[in-house]
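Incident log, support desk, overnight shift.

02:14 A customer reports that sequence design results differ from what the structure should imply. Their input is reproduced verbatim below. On-call engineer (initials T.W.) acknowledged and began investigating.
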């Protein structure tokens, strides 16, 4: 499949221009937005066709890329749109539904721009996903959100990635036990996610299909921003 319509969600004007120039040279119709809230408005609006691909930066004002991804995953229409993530962090690539790749920003943009061009040329539409019945929305309380944003970007990215992994595992009904994920007894039921010493408790609301981070414990030896 060829990418004819592309939505680029990026707040850095220089990266916007470089990505737009490459996409135009590959024959794409490009829409640029600078934050997550505007991206969701564009995606949810009926005034224009939805894009074939979303290029989504993770570090955005107002609403970050992870939140945009999470909102897309629980929307029946938006969850079918492939996402190519973009970030300056060097953490592992996400293995999550809807994500077709990950571009790591570098001080010199040329390698990233080359990868982006190759991905556009070789883009293959992912298999159609089943309806989003049982898909869990991921939520953060205000306190856990503040604590999470005090972590270095790479560690923050890793914690958010594992939160969404937990949500996808919960949807499949697989056993909640691994080196990083553990089911906790209680009412309501909850999960414990552990990433590089950071521990997060996620409360499960099965009726509402939500997974809410209610507690975040950060070891004292970890750096804060």
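02:41 Re-run completed on a clean worker. Output:
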């Amino acid at each position: 499949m060829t990418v004819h319509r592309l939505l680029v969600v990026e707040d850095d004007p220089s990266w916007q221009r470089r990505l737009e120039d490459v996409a135009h040279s590959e024959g794409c119709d490009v829409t640029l937005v600078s934050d997550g809230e505007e991206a969701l408005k564009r995606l949810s609006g009926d005034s224009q066709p939805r894009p074939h691909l979303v290029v989504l930066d993770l570090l955005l004002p107002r609403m970050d890329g992870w939140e945009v991804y999470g909102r897309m995953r629980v929307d029946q229409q938006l969850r079918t749109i492939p996402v190519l993530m973009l970030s300056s962090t060097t953490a592992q690539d996400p293995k999550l539904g809807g994500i077709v790749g990950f571009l790591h920003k570098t001080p010199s943009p040329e390698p990233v721009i080359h990868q982006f061009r190759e991905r556009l040329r070789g883009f293959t539409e992912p298999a159609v996903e089943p309806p989003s019945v049982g898909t869990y929305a991921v939520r953060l309380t205000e306190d856990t959100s503040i604590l999470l944003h005090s972590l270095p970007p790479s560690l923050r990215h890793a914690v958010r990635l594992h939160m969404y992994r937990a949500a996808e595992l919960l949807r499949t009904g697989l056993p909640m036990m691994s080196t990083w994920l553990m089911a906790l007894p209680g009412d309501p039921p909850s999960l414990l996610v552990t990433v590089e010493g950071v521990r997060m408790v996620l409360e499960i609301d099965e009726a509402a299909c939500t997974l809410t981070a209610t507690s975040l414990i950060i070891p004292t030896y970890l750096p804060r921003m």
